[in-house]
Design a protein that fits this description.
Number of helices: 18
Structural class: mainly alpha
Order of helices and strands: HHHHHHHHHHHHHHHHHH
Radius of gyration: 21 Å
Length: 404
Amino acid sequence: MKKLSLTSQIALALVLAVVAGILLQGYADFVNEYIKPLGNIFLNLLKFIVVPLVLFSIMAGILSMNDVSKVGRLGLRALLYFMFTTVIAVALGLVASTLGKGVLPLIHVERGGSTDAVEILDITVMDQIVNMFPDNIMLPLTNMTMIQVIVIAVFFGVAMVHVGEAGEPVRKLTLSINVVVSKVLSYIMALAPYGVFCMLTPVVVSNGPSVLGSYAALVALGYFCFVLHAVCVYGSLVYLLGNTSPIRFFKELQPAMLFAFSSDSSVATLPYTMECTEKLGVRKDIGNFVLSLGATINMDGVAIYLGVASVFMAACCGIDLTLHQYFAIAFASTVASIGTPGIPGGSLALMAMVFASAQIPVECVAIVAGVDRIVDMGRTVMSITGDASCAVVMQNRLKDKVGA
């Protein structure tokens, strides 16, 4: 018998948690005393791996950018394009979810004592910028101040690139540690189905069957943002900068979009995406480079959903997000969408990073993990659509300036 994939196991855990939660409606004390603590073990493991994962994956990503720096004008323009669409994606996710806060059915989540003790101040934009830069290298790591962890990773990553051969031992050590950290994450994610079941069952016991409506609303909001971003942003850019009809663009890209939705892998979809962009007039050398680069760093769907999930779960916890928290979510989501690990469950670990950066309880990751597989299919379609739009735009803007 073929073993279920991790995502299928997590989806099954969601279903079983809903069933168990409904059956155990009258046994809340038993659930909270014997089932919830097992979920907390998974939560603690997830928290423990987040800081090293973010620190070393970002440094490793910067080190790998050496290859990108050699491609000149095409690489620079593609990177700027991806960053531009990612910023819009984050803003869209935050705005849409904020507007829908008063309408969407919420899941009641009890906040832990440690989270209640955190005081969130409404500070100025300049204070936010100052607070991004740590005055102590250890405190951000121990306190999970994720924006400062990201800044530390960027400084050390760039420094390793600049010192060249002198930093080679540190470079090799960083890449090696990143591989080890990713392996540890894979061990933790193997426990995800059990952790999700044990974290979700108490939530269903507290909320009852109405939790299903909340999940449906979260998924629907995510897909609404995906469609809006694809049509308005990619469609407009393809028309204005790519000199291509949006209708033709989406029509020619349909085979790749359908395969991406079913396979849930932008890398596996690459041959289909390349074939579709060639039909749209993109030269093979341009398409191969842009689409390969995009499959690695362009994750607009992830950026949108991280914003949507953050605002949704903050509302479920009764947290009124401040400007500082919105800024933290936007910054962390942008970085996370570029550095999503290419392993099962990697996006959940980065979701924990985003939640921690805005002081949203990290246990909320387990609550949204059950529907992550459903949303991830849409995120993959978003990724390959954004990659293809960039290829079309680059073809039109560069034309014959890039040699074959």
